[in-house]
Each structure stands twice: as C-alpha cells, then as structure tokens.
Design brief:
Blueprint (H helix, E strand, L loop, with lengths): L7 E10 L4 E11 L2 E7 L10 E4 L4 E4 L1 E6 L16 H17 L2 E6 L5 H8 L7 E4 L3 E3 L25 E3 L3 H13 L5 E4 L18 H13 L4 E7 H9 L4 E7 L2 H10 L2 E3 L2 H10 L7 H4 L2 H18 L2 E2 L16 H5 L5 H7 L2 H6 L17 E4 L13 H4 E6 L2 E5 L9
Parallel strand pairs: 1-4, 1-5, 6-7, 7-8, 9-10, 11-12, 12-13, 13-14, 14-15
Antiparallel strand pairs: 1-2, 2-3, 5-16, 16-17, 17-18
Helix pairs in contact: 3-4, 5-6, 7-9
Length: 421
C-alpha cells in the first residue's frame, strides 16, 4: 500500500524541468500536504519534525507522466464484444489496467471513450490504485461510424448508459447535442466525436468523413457552454481540417494530415495526439487480442504514415501530446511510445508532450506536468537522464525507481538506493 501523506524532502536529485528543458544535479524538492512546496539547489532546508528525507543519490526527479489517450475499460481489441459483457467485468479489467499505468510512471491519464464518473471516483477515493483519471464518457458517433461497433448483421447499438461500450450512436444535430449534454451531466472532462473512419470499427472506411457539420457544431457549442472542449478522432487531412474549422480543439491520431492541416493546427492553437504504439501492436498482435479481420486489414493504411506525420507536425511547431490508444492485453506496451517518438523528435520535445504540453491540453497547467512550487506532487524518480535518452522511459520496470502521486509514494523499486546507470 502507499505511504500515508507526509512532508517529504527529496535531496541529491537531478531535477528535470521539462518546460525549461533542463536537468539540474544537486537539487532538492520539498513536498508538503500533497503539493510541491519548494525546490532549490545546494543545502536543503530543514523539513521539520516528523518529515521524511530521501537522498536520491543523483537520480533524476521529474514530473509524473501524462497519457492523453487511454482506454482502460477496453478488455479486448474487439470493441463490439464489449456490448455483450458485464460492466463489472470491464471495471475489474480497468482497475488492473490503471494500476499498471501508475506503476509505469503515469500519474495522470485521459480516457477518451469508455470510462465514466464511477471509475474516476473509484480512483479518487482510493478504491483503485491508479493515476488521476480524466474521462469523457462515451464517444459520439453517427450510425455506421467509428463509434458504431456492430457488424453488418447486428441491429442493437448498445447505446445505453449501462453498456460498457465505448460509443454512443447519434444521428442529427439534436441527438448529438443531447448526447453531449448527457456526458457533460455526468462530469465529463471533455467530449469526443468521431470525425473519420477508424481501424477498430467494422463497417467504415479510414478515408471517410463522419458527423455532419451541424452535428459537430452542436457538440462544440455544448462543450464550450460548459467550459469544456471537444476532441475528435480523425485520420485524413480532409476530416482533420473540417473538425478544426468547426471548433474541435484536439485531434486524436492524425496519421494522414498534410500541410494545410499543419497550418490549421497553428492558426487554431489546437493540439494533436498521435498514438503510434497502438498501430505497432495491432500489426504485431492484434489478431490474438481480438481484432477482427476486417479491422486488421486497415492497420497498414495508418501505420506507415504515422511517424512521418509526427515528424512534420513537430517541425511545424504543432502542440503535440503523448497518447497510446492501446486495447486489451496490448496496454502492457504503453511505455514503448517513448521509443517510437524518439525516432522523430528530440528527447526534450517528447518529454514535454508527456508532461507540460499534455497538462495544457488537459487544463491542468500549473498542477500537473511540472516541478513548479504549488503543483500537485505527482513525480517519478528515474535512473539516468531522460533528456539525453528518453527511451529510458520505455522500460519503466528497469528505470523508473519510484512513483509519487499526490505526495504519496505509490511505487517503490528502491527509493533512496544508489542511482543506477
């Protein structure tokens, strides 16, 4: 179990500030009442009676990681199968999934279809030992769209609140508006809408556009009225550009974007969340994790273009955020996204995507993804220098020595031991 909340002073740390892109040896950081109270170099202050002091012996101390595209309830890559399972089964799978994410160093995650207020509350109350969970409820999809996981012969949509499916099928602006309001009523942090076809859905094409303009506008209006935002699933430039022009703040995937898309991202100050590891794993082991044949045939279309889209978006200065989108047993490969991104971005940029830039997207700037005083004490201790080699984070069991969430040590693989590497 996690330590009880206390004042903790970390000394001998190489403090990594992703916003500044610096790693400063000989630093200290003081945690009090679950928040970062102060940081500095040289001689550390007296933390007071009863406080815990931990000498990190030169290890890196940095913000906890953020994954902005997870599906902890997705127990199979066959998302249509979820309509036939019990919600309690999906919850049990999600509990194990979220705990594993925390152990990899992710202290905040954004669920972009499937999770709900109950799952977030269970994490908040400690019933599930996991990262902070920001949920959007069910994704909104047109009939036959990426959120409609029925095969051609199935009629029941599973579009009701108790079904552990990831999507709600809507048609017409009024239906989309009502569905958005329903997700917001439950406390959704954002609304997700399907703007193009996808891999996991059985009856649509990757290159299709989905949701009519008036449907998209209705969802954007409702999110903005509630001071929330809309994120859109989209692959092609046509679908991405259409969503951005209509007020969608964030795009998931974007593997097939072009130069006009990059211009729109910058003009609208929108965010892009590539999810490259999921295509790697779907190609490698999708079949044994339940991905239907009609979905497996689509994987190569997006796999080949994803890394190039990431490289071009980085060079253009688009706000890029870390995401993984893994399903079922493939979620174990979450951290490998760091190694993939390192092929297209420098380490500092990859780190910002999983910390400070992600925090801006999630409206947690100043609270997460930073080592500033006043932020939540969500931290990880890493052996080695991720600014020099970000792929260290791809092997958390080897290199992430400890995970601190809200000031509590949740994972301890040798906290205070001599630094390795």
């Amino acid at each position: 179990m996690a330590d009880r909340p206390r004042t903790t002073l970390f000394t001998g740390a190489a403090l990594l500030d992703p916003e500044a892109g610096t790693r400063t040896p000989g630093s200290w950081l003081l945690v009090d009442e679950g928040r970062i109270a102060a940081t500095g170099q040289g001689r550390a202050p007296d933390p007071g009676e009863g406080a815990r002091t931990v000498d990190l012996a030169g290890a890196t101390l940095m913000p906890g990681l953020i994954d902005a595209h997870v599906h902890p309830t997705a127990f199979s890559a066959d998302l249509g199968a979820a309509m036939d399972h019990s919600p309690s089964y999906a919850t049990a799978f999600a509990a194990r999934s979220l705990t594993a994410m925390l152990h990899r160093g992710f202290t905040t995650v954004r669920d972009v279809a499937g999770g709900d207020w109950g799952l977030a509350q269970a994490v908040e109350e400690g019933l599930i030992d996991g990262p902070r969970l920001l949920f959007g409820g069910k994704a909104l999809s047109q009939t036959g769209g990426h959120g409609d996981f029925r095969g051609p012969g199935r009629q029941d949509t599973g579009s009701h609140g108790c079904c552990p499916s990831t999507g709600l099928v809507c048609d017409g602006a009024t239906a989309f508006r009502r569905a958005a309001r329903e997700q917001l009523r439950t406390g959704a942090h954002h609304i997700k809408i399907m703007l193009s076809g996808g891999v996991a859905s059985p009856t649509d094409r990757i290159d299709s556009t989905q949701s009519a303009e008036e449907e998209i506008r209705a969802v954007v209006e409702e999110a903005e009225a509630a001071n929330r935002y809309v994120t859109g699933h989209a692959y092609t430039a046509r679908a991405v550009n259409r969503g951005l022009r209509l007020g969608v703040r964030c795009i998931e995937h974007g593997n097939l974007i072009d130069d006009t898309s990059l211009e729109l991202f910058l003009e609208r100050r929108a965010f892009l969340v590539p999810t490259l590891v999921t295509y790697q794993e779907l190609a490698r082991q999708g079949a044994r994790n339940g991905l239907p044949p009609e979905s497996r045939a689509k994987v190569s279309t997006v796999l080949d273009r994803g890394l190039e889209a990431l490289r071009r978006a980085h060079e253009a200065g688009v706000d890029l955020v870390f995401g993984t989108d893994l399903l079922g047993g493939m979620q174990a490969h979450q951290s490998e996204e760091f190694a993939i991104r390192a092929q297209a971005q420098p380490a500092a940029a990859v780190l910002r995507s999983a910390t400070s830039t992600a925090a801006r997207l999630l409206n947690l700037e100043g609270r997460a993804g930073t080592v500033r005083a006043g932020a939540d004490a969500d931290l990880i201790v890493v052996d080695g220098d991720p600014l020099a080699d970000v792929t260290l984070l791809a092997e958390p069991e080897e290199n992430v020595r400890a995970v601190v969430r809200g000031g509590e040590v949740r994972v301890d693989r040798g906290l205070g031991a001599p630094a390795r590497g």
